[in-house]
Amino acid sequence: MAVHDAAALCLIACCRVPAYRPSVTKRCATVLFLAGLCVTAPLLGACTAASTPANSVATANQRLGGSWRLQSFAPSVSLDLPLQAVLSAEIGTLMVTFDQGQFSAVGPGVTFGGRYQVTSASADQLALILYDAQNVGYHFTAQFAGNLLHFQSNDKPWVGFGALEHA
């Protein structure tokens, strides 16, 4: 994001742009948070080939637990300026915490939470759904790699790839 876009980012983060209601900003932040979860989930889901699906999901949930910082996100389709500003403000600062089926995301422009469900897991890979406060589900796939969780977000407007780092 260019330096001259800082004022636009400030307006967006403060929810003062009339075209983008606070609910849109919160939904975008939720999607980013969920994407972060997807990234972290595979790292936590390592298990042996002999593990049952239920054990693999339990292991993935255990590995996913804790706090994760959004390190990167590359949308598959270009975002409009306000959404790009929200994303730019959250990279490196948005903290996503997973704890027993609940998540929270806190960053400079967003604070939200909800529930999550790991739907499948195998070794370092997992699939999960994050549900926002309105019970809208966002689907992710993820893979653990050391202290990173690489994820793919599959729902608009945040379709793309990203990474979360275990804090």
List the helices and strands and how they pair.
Elements: H1 6-13, H2 22-44, H3 53-64, E1 66-75, H4 81-90, E2 95-99, E3 102-106, E4 111-122, E5 125-131, E6 137-145, E7 148-153, E8 160-166
Antiparallel strand pairs: 1-2, 1-8, 2-3, 3-4, 4-5, 5-6, 6-7, 7-8
Could you name the key traits of this structure?
167 residues; Lipocalin; single chain; globular; 8 strands; 4 helices; disordered N terminus; eight-stranded antiparallel beta barrel; alpha+beta
What Rg is obtained from the alpha carbons, in whole angstroms? 15 Å
- Cα(first) to Cα(last) distance is 25 Å
CATH class: Mainly Beta
Number of strands: 8
What sort of overall outline do the alpha carbons produce when their principal axes are compared? globular
- Order of strands, widest sheet: 1-2-3-4-5-6-7-8
What is the name of the CATH topology?
Lipocalin
Beta-strand percent range: 35-45%
Largest sheet, if any?
Answer: 8 strands, antiparallel, barrel
Approximate helicity band: 25-40%
Mean pLDDT: 80
Q: Count of helical segments?
A: 4
| Unreliable parts | 1-20, 41-49
CATH architecture title: Beta Barrel
H/E element sequence: HHHEHEEEEEEE
Q: Please, how many domains?
A: 1
